[in-house]
Amino acid sequence: MPPDPSLFSLIATSHSNRLFQQGIDVLNVLNAQIQQTILSSMFEPHVFVGVQTFSSFELYAASYGELARHSRKITVLGEADVRPRSLNNTEFIALPSGSALTKERFLIINDPSWQVMLLAQVLAETTERPGRQQRYQGLLTFSTQTIERCNMLASMLAGQPAQPVGRAEPMLQQQHIAQFVMRLALMQHTVDLNLPQLLVEVPALVDVAKQVAQQPSMVARLQWLINQSRALIRTDSITIYRKEDTMLRPVVSTHPLDQVKGIVNGQGMIGGIVNTPQLVVVDGTAAAHESSLANAQSVLAMPIFDQSGEQMWGVVAYGTSRGGAFGNPPERVPLATITGMISGIVFDDRSTVEPQSPP
User: Which three-class secondary structure state does DSSP give residue 224?
Assistant: First the structure.
């Protein structure tokens, strides 16, 4: 290990064309949305956090306390300028004053369900300014290799055994990335986010998310997304159902809604997702019964959760006349991407929405 280790130095040269320059406010937005994506999901990662100083951690202690309740562990690294408050499931690692890592902020998630890292170093010319005016050069990445390297160094600095993950499960990785990107796109009217600069690894997803965000309402966004996605993901039908007291009610569909029936909660394979929230694939003659597509030979349905990650918002069902179309895991990855975007769109929804027929 070098005498003054730096996470940023690990990536600065190899990722020089992907670095952004932003203020602390943008870093806080990215950090918060990564946390929200974790809280709304069903996995519990080990999180490494770099905060420069423990006093700056105090500003965000409440949100990290919530994250700690949904994580295996949080390890916080920073200069011990104050004594940090005690938080369950959280370990603080003091860094030498003036060391390279005290000029860096980071959030590392290296989990089989999602790999993401936000890493930034304060620009030298802004170090004397008040904290909120400081500017940072940094990277937001989903790269397995980059995240594994930084996670290993962070583990060594914390005196903890490194736990390599390898590549995250592709469906879950894409679903979480898509939800995260969609949420950022929907925030652009309140925060000045240069998404193409921040999300250089997923430009096509950014383009779609920005177009979705331009639609005037939640239902219009959902309808636009499924209309544009159907051909791209080679499905014949997509229907999004909203969970109500006793029914899954269709909200948007690529078919006229008067031809799409609601599903009693707990009834059939799709309705059964209400009781056991998990991905369901139905093939053969049962597929037509479960789908709004009369000649369906394969249906895949996935639950959609609200921001708590504990309450199911609804279900999205994809149908196709191609038998066995969803049996191969790689075929499911594009569907997971669309489902992630749907989750991002409905993330804050607490209203009763009126269904909308396709234009």
Answer: helix
